[in-house]
Description:
Shape: globular
Order of helices and strands: HHHHHHHHHHHHHHHHHHEHEEHHEE
Low-confidence stretches: 140-144
Number of helices: 21
Strand order of the largest sheet: 2-1-3-5-4
Helix content: 55-70%
Oligomer: single chain
Amino acid sequence: MLNKKIFFIFLFAFLVRLIALNQSLWLDEAVTAKVVMNYGFTEIVSKFSPTDFHPPLYYLFMKLWTNMFGYSEIALRMPSVLFSLMTGYVVYLIGGIWAASFFLFNPLIVYYSQEARMYMMTTFFLTAGLYYFFESQKLEVKSQKYNLKFKSLLLMNIFFIAAFFSFYGSIFLIVTIFIYLLYKKQYKEFFVSCFLFLVSFALVSPLLYQQFVNSKIALINVANWSLVLGKANIKNLLLIPIKFSIGRISFYPKWLYWGIAGMWTGFVLFTIKTVLNKTVFIKTVFYLLIFPLILGFLVSFFTPMLQYFRFLYLIPLMSIILGINTLQSRDDRSKIVMKYVMLFGFIVFSLIYLLLPQFHREDWKSLVKNLPKDKLVYMITASSDPVSYYDKQLNINELANYELKAREINVIPYTTAIYGFDYKSVLSKAGYKLKKEVSFREVTYEQWTKK
């Protein structure tokens, strides 16, 4: 049974996640909405997934969920809210109440707890797998609890496979676990885990191969796509601890933002450093936190994917380390103060994001509401899912392949920079002049008129 303190922490975490939960969907969330609204269960696997870059489990789950609860912003995001709370409970089982608190109010976790994407589902699966991994490590093979150890190992692999079927980036943590088993000479556990994973990998390999081919084509055809995916460079690597500490907020002047972000991140890293010692558990947790980042960095030299949100599943490990720090320093007044400062800072940064609309997602809802409906609309149609979500009747024309005959047109220039399409030069040569530009949060539409 949960005690009252834990109950109120989770209740507060749940209520916090309800703030601004109905904010506008952004592009990737609109893709989720499109899939569950327009494809059946089998079509998600056979028709949509080959054109996507993610495995289908999350979409299949969301199809089932939305069949029951509908397609509103809140309905689409509620699974992520619930998965984040369930992950927090698993973190509590592993690291205690402070570890759970650091996780539940981490500003980046709060942000992605409100996103209709697969990242919180994946984080839950991997954290649950880690729980059973730690359980398996507590039990001796030769003891009478051998069957219990095998059960923990089996459950660990089930959760890891579910994570991989939700998000391919899970592989970095899964491989890290396998290497650990091999290093510890737990050969039976290593071979059983590898066998189960390879069988599962074989099931999804035809789909994965088709997606890999399509991703290579996208990297060639979309001029700046690699910048979105995350190249292996120092900037993207440094952004991971910064975003893990401060979340998604960003503001001007940039010198002030980097100053605050740098100091807070330094404080978080310093707090982590104070707990590092030679106990097996802490060394293991730290290894599980760092090694997946090293693998991701190395792989990103060949296939760019070094973006901080793709390693969101490591924040539970960071929270466990911070939680262990508080457990070991309860008699040290300075460290007691540090844990309260840490939690207070996480809550403040989370509330800054939640309560200030300028830090919310792209405001497609307002753009579509204010978009003049009496003129043709042009944009990169591959990025038009948010527009279609908020106005299913609106006809959208392809900006990069069009016949410009109307005297006045509306242009939504979203993702033109990613596609390397200089639409302004093209429109100017066609005799159009920019008449008006209307901006909402991170999205804009323009009115162009024939001269």
